[in-house]
Amino acid sequence: MKRKLTAILCAGILGASLITGGCGNSASTSADSNSAVQSESSEMLTEELGDADAAAPDEKIQDSAARDDSGEASTDTDASLGGTAASTVKSQNQKLIFTYTYSVETKEFDTFYEKISKKTEQIGGYVESSETYGSAADGVNRSASLVLRIPADQMNQMLSLLDSDSNVTYQSRSSENVTLRYVDMESHLKALRIEQETLLQLLEKAEKLKDVIKLHSQLTQIRYEIESYESQLRMYDNQIEYSTLYLDISEVQRETTVASSKTTFFEEVSNLFSDNLYGVGQWLRSAVIWLIGSLPVLLPLVVIVIAIVLFLVKKHKSIRNKIQAAQTEDPGTSTEDNSTVKEEDTI
Questions:
Q1: Residues 93-114: tens digit of each pLDDT
Q2: Alpha-carbon distance 235 to 225, whole Å?
Q3: Residues 141, 251: contact at Cβ < 8 Å?
Q4: How many C-beta atoms surround the C-beta of residue 297 within 10 A?
Q5: Are 326 and 333 in contact (CB under 8 A)?
Q6: pTM for the predicted model, two decimal places
Q7: Which residues of the chain form beta strands (DSSP E)?
Q8: CB under 8 Å to 235, separation ≥6 — which residues?
Q9: Which residues are bridge partners to 170 per DSSP?
Q10: How are beta strands 96-106 and 242-251 bridged, if at all?
């Protein structure tokens, strides 16, 4: 049946070429040239389909999935690829991208940070980015933000370490199913590679310069699309194989009490009151430390402020004395003196 369809297709192309050639006898010279190019292209395509039919019928069916000169796939090709993608999705493993977010507290920052680094390397992961804040020398609690890429099948080991060696204050997990997109990209990539092979074979048989240029242009576009799909598939493969863990580590002197389903109402209130009381005590402690540490700067400022205040008080007393003396010597001019003194006070 496949051979008959191929024979019918070839006969149709040849018939169209003969009709085009007959009509070209009454047309202009440019029309004759175009008919000749179409006839030669049809012959090349017929030879290609004939070779594919003699060599391997399956390859001939795949060649029919190649796009025409406008770069668009035929309706039969789209239906074939859609059915293949649907059947592949059912039989293929799901393509899932997992993302984890954890916030933890620890009293031993250096030890815990080292454990995380060693565990990541041990299970085959790597640190994508790392930022550390604060300094132990300044007496400030340190913190770190890490982005870890962990093999998906080893993530449970890392999460177990976080649960056992730190106080987890926040955790979340999300997943993205990219199976359909992944399979669709693979189908398009397969069709593009088949089309590339067909165009390369036609290029070897092309004799006219404009045919060669046209085929080269189509090959360049196809190669660009192939590289784009391959790049996206590699990115998906990396995200699927390595899950992403966003980890925030905080150094604390006292771990925050995290309520659970077994915590009673009074226990939760007591824990919250204790945490807030501890927070207030830490704030007062920090304020006193800052005040004492800032005395070398604060003392000169305090002295300057006191000197300015004493100067203003002394000047005010002097103005008051002048007013009283003027009122005693000439009561009639007291009003004018008072206004003058008020102006001086204002200045």
A1: 789 999 999 999 999 999 999 9
A2: 16
A3: yes
A4: 8
A5: yes
A6: 0.54
A7: 96-106, 126-133, 143-151, 167-177, 242-251
A8: none
A9: 103
A10: parallel
